[in-house]
């Protein structure tokens, strides 16, 4: 390839070489064809440590095109180190447009949240997954867990839920809550709060999961059944919050606890920063929202 | 009673390279019958048991099992999925070391309930009620249901393992030295319990043991193995009271008298 005068001359488009992208796309296609099945792939070294989203970055790099608009969130927030760095990375190596607005993005790479704003057909949600195997902490042997998936032996998954009820009186698993995809594979939805599990069910958006260290890719195609496991007498429930968001007053959203001082002061605010800002722009106010408009001291939008 | 055996074993052999595991073993096992396999260490008892329970594949020979629908199925021709299903529904396997047969990091209740959940039981209350029932049947106090087996004594672990295996109402149970490593009074209670359960439930069982007293108490029939071959078989009382093969005579006369 001849040297170009652009900033991205030293990289192939989207950092990965074309052969690697083809390999990852094949894994993605296989994942889509077998919803919930973990497809092994030859994960590459990325210019970031394992655990920082190497799997998600490789998936995003393989599917992103020059016309895409990228949004990156970390626990719902657009402004944390991980999200800012990954957004800057793709801005540099793929020269794509970036956004913090859920509705405007075509690809949303996420660490552990699904945006509150409903996703639409044509959008792709890319999850960063630390441990893709839902049975891992119950059965350490990979040979055995693969066999259990192959033979659909999922009794063990319910043993974990049974233990929860026996110990805590209810299913105490609050994140990485196991789901069954299209009535076949049991899947780890990555450590998203179980609050987000219902959003995966028959979502119009394509959901891709990349685990870089564990070298696995899996997928949930649009409009696929995703059912959270439970017992007949202890049905699946999502978290509920006693109070609305302290800044925007939103209800029925996932809230983060923010410590305000060292005297026990705290508030609950939307974990989805974009959603919260949008609501405040529309004039919604929570009980701790400042009188003046927050927009001026709002966190730096993505460059 | 049916006049057909539950398990038919014919010319079963297992070789580890040139070494013999078990050689040319044939027998039939009838429903409700307890067969003891005795012999010294290295005589091939455990190899035979592992082959029968399909944990090992034999080098040659066949074994067919009469399924619940009355049809005989050749064990080594079944798919792995079918064999594993059989393993956790119609069969049980009691290991010598309970840690091999239990999940040591989940509670006793979940250990008993696992098989139920594996076959599709999805009602917590019912699973728990069954677990409570089974714990009492193996003489474990109800308030230990949420304790991990790590906190149990050796005898309790073994009883828990038995409960875990019997909860799905199996018809055939394999036992590998079920009383090994337990002190004599605990052994006696466990044997008593096993004998009761086997009679009540009409279980068929194959018990591997080096302890002739265990064989005498539990089994109706026994096979004596040496160097991978069956040297003598017959009714337990007959073999123990009137041993014919020289090796059996040696074995019987080696029992220490108190």
Automatic annotation (TrEMBL), chain B:
The region annotated as signal peptide is none
InterPro entries found in the cross-reference section: AAA+_ATPase (IPR003593), ABC_transporter-like_ATP-bd (IPR003439), ABC_transporter-like_CS (IPR017871), P-loop_NTPase (IPR027417), PhnK (IPR012700)
Q: Does the keyword tRNA processing apply?
A: no
Q: Which Pfam families match?
A: ABC_tran (PF00005)
The protein's matches in SUPFAM superfamilies, at most eight in alphabetical order, are given as:
P-loop containing nucleoside triphosphate hydrolases
- This protein's source sits in the domain of life called Bacteria
Q: Which UniProt keywords apply?
A: ATP-binding, Lyase, Nucleotide-binding
Domain spans labelled ABC transporter:
7-252
- Any one GO molecular function term: lyase activity
Q: Which residues form a coiled coil?
A: none
User: What is any one GO biological process for this UniProt entry?
Assistant: organic phosphonate catabolic process
* Homology family: Belongs to the ABC transporter superfamily.
Q: What is this protein called?
A: Phosphonate C-P lyase system protein PhnK
Q: Which organism is it from?
A: Mesorhizobium japonicum
